[in-house]
Amino acid sequence: MIRTILILLYLVLFLILGIPVLFVEWIIGHFNQDLKDRSSLALVQWGFRCCLFTAGTKITVLGKENIPKDTAVLYVANHRSYFDILINYTLVPGLTGFISKKEMKRVPLLSLWMKNVHCLFLDRHDIKQGMQTILAGIEKVKSGISIFIFPEGTRNREEGTFLDFKGGSFKIAEKSGCPIIPVAINNSGAIFEDHIPFVRKTHVVVEYGKPILPSSLAKEERKLIPQMAKEQIVTMFEKNKSLLSS
Questions:
Q1: Alpha carbon distance 113, 227 (integer Å)
Q2: How far apart are CA 64 and CA 61, in angstroms?
Q3: Contacts of 131 (CB under 8 A, 6+ apart)
């Protein structure tokens, strides 16, 4: 319970003490957007690393060589925990925006930080608004900002299982021409969700898979991209179970 209290206290202090920092970032953005982007990402990554350290989370990372260094990508991952976002934000090598549910837009201060690091907000029940979010994601990728999605659409409550991957968000890669990087996350639910309200020391394994290139696929094959990504993630997930005891 102590870890939970410490993390909650830390997040509250980060958001409150970060108010003047947000103001400075706003000013920087008026003169140098690139500097604002890089500084905001560095601050968020530092904040998340502190949270993960407090939570006692050990992370084993595999396959980072599969992430292209010269282009934006679409990351697609399985989703078991709120900590999936913290973990992956500390690992991404460049500007990356997550697609989050629209409810997060209502959280004071946090939503401002999310906008600073190019997060997009998705209304899963409004098809028209959802399409606008996908179009915004395409423009982000074309401008050099990677996008990270959880195509299951919501957190999976059961460890070791996978929900169907929704195809709409994969349009970001198809329309922008960027590579798709499958990401398998093992054991993140053991940090918090498996024993709410306790945060416990946990070993998490994250693996980045081989890129899927929509442009190299025939038109009919592109319809199978969500299934291709899911199969690669499931394969990595099952393989990496053996690493959790180490």
A1: 33
A2: 7
A3: 168
Residue 169 near residue 158 (C-beta atoms within 8 A): no
The secondary structure of residue 71, as a DSSP letter, is S
Contacts of 211 (CB under 8 A, 6+ apart): 66, 68, 73, 179, 180, 181
Instruction: Mention every residue, 6+ apart, whose C-beta is less than 8 A from residue 64.
Output: 91, 93, 208
Span 194-212, pLDDT tens digits: 888 899 999 999 999 999 9
Residue found under tokens 């410490």: 6
Q: CB under 8 Å to 149, separation ≥6 — which residues?
A: 74, 75, 76, 77, 98, 99, 169, 172
> For residue range 81-135, what is the model confidence (pLDDT) as tens digits?
999 999 999 999 999 999 988 888 888 899 999 999 999 998 877 778 888 999 9
Of 88, 76, 101, whose CA–CA distance to 172 is shortest?
76
Q: For strand 202-208 and strand 57-62, is the pairing parallel, antiparallel, or unpaired?
A: parallel
Q: What are the structure tokens assigned to 236, written together?
A: 């990595």
From the list 168, 171, 129, the residue with the least C-alpha distance to 152 is 168
Helix axes 19-31, 33-55, angle to 10 degrees: 150
For residue 70, count other CB atoms closer than 10 A to its CB: 5
Residue 246 has pLDDT above 70, yes or no: no
| Angle, CA of 84, 86 and 90, to the nearest 5° | 115
Residue with tokens 């395409």: 138
User: Using an 8 Å Cβ cutoff, are 180 and 109 in contact?
Assistant: no
